């Protein structure tokens, strides 16, 4: 009997290149997780097409169809539960999820951020890093708590910032690392190799 892999629900608002990296990792049957559903808030998100090309259900849940942010979040949560997801992965989801959403999936929501948190949270992290003049930025994968980009950090990858870097060139270099970091972090979670103690995340070696 094949072992049931962890079912992931991926939330995306746009291009979906991190979704693609997760879909690609999950093509390997020995990868311990698979994408059960992709949900987007944006009808133009290329992520929807990527999911469908992989035969993964993709659903559009438009914020404008709901009276407020919480009702929208609860509709998304309900669909994720109906797909039996054990992990929610935010992958370029350009919305701040409400506490009501987070409480439905305690300790089971991950986000990827294109900077070394706690530096440069929020939007345009790569631009913030270039304008600030840091010499090192990078990637953070973290669990989501009720703050903005404040949850316990699972892994980080440093990326050097060169003198000639622009927002675009730095974003492209960070993105290459994102595409390895997110599947790696999901693997750690799916294999039960993460232990959380307050802010600290301890990783068991395989
Ligand atoms: C990625 O760089 C991701 O880290 C960033 O949006 C991009 C989405 O790209 N997320 C944030 O800035 C969240 N604050 P993608 O749609 O190609 O995965």
Task: Give an overview in words.
- It contains six helices and nine strands.
- The chain is an alpha/beta fold.
- The strands form two sheets. The protein has a seven-stranded mixed sheet. A two-stranded antiparallel sheet has the order 8-9.
- Strand 8 (194-197) and strand 9 (200-203) form a beta hairpin.
- The two termini are 23 Å apart.
- The mean pLDDT is 97.
- The chain binds glycinamide ribonucleotide (GAR).
Structural features:
globular, binds glycinamide ribonucleotide, seven-stranded mixed beta sheet, single chain, 6 helices, 206 residues, 34% helix, alpha/beta
TL;DR of this structure?
The chain is an alpha/beta fold. The protein has helices spanning 17-26, 46-53, 69-82, 99-104, 125-132, 167-190; strands at residues 6-12, 33-40, 58-60, 87-90, 109-113, 136-143, 153-160, 194-197, 200-203.
Residue runs with pLDDT of under 50 for 5 or more positions: none
H/E element sequence: EHEHEHEHEHEEHEE
Largest sheet: 7 strands, mixed
Percent helix range: 25-40%
Could you give the distance between the termini? Answer: 23 Å
Number of helices: 6
- Average pLDDT: 97
Proportion of residues in β-strands: 15-25%
Shape: globular
For the secondary structure, the number of strands is: 9
Strand ordering within the main sheet: 3-2-1-4-5-6-7
Rounded to the nearest angstrom, the radius of gyration is 17 Å
User: Structural class, from helix and strand content?
Assistant: alpha/beta
Task: Give the cofactors and ligands.
Answer: glycinamide ribonucleotide
């Amino acid at each position: 009997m094949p072992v049931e892999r962890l079912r992931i629900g991926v939330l995306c608002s746009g291009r979906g290149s991190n979704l693609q990296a997760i879909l690609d990792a999950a093509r390997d049957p020995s990868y311990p997780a698979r994408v059960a559903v992709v949900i987007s808030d944006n009808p133009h998100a290329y992520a929807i097409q990527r999911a469908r090309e992989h035969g993964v259900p993709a659903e559009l849940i438009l914020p404008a169809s709901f009276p407020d942010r919480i009702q929208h979040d609860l509709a998304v949560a309900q669909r994720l539960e109906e797909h039996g997801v054990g992990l929610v992965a935010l992958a370029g989801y350009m919305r701040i999820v409400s506490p009501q959403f987070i409480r439905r999936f305690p300790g089971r929501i991950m986000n990827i951020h294109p900077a070394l948190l706690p530096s440069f949270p929020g939007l345009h992290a790569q631009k913030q890093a270039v304008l600030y003049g840091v010499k090192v930025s990078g990637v953070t994968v973290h669990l989501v708590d009720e703050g903005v980009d404040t949850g316990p950090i699972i892994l980080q990858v440093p990326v050097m910032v060169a003198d000639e870097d622009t927002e675009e060139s730095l974003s492209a270099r960070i993105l290459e690392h994102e595409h390895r970091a997110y599947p790696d972090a999901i693997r750690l979670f799916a294999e039960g190799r993460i232990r959380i103690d307050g802010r600290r995340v301890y990783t068991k070696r395989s």
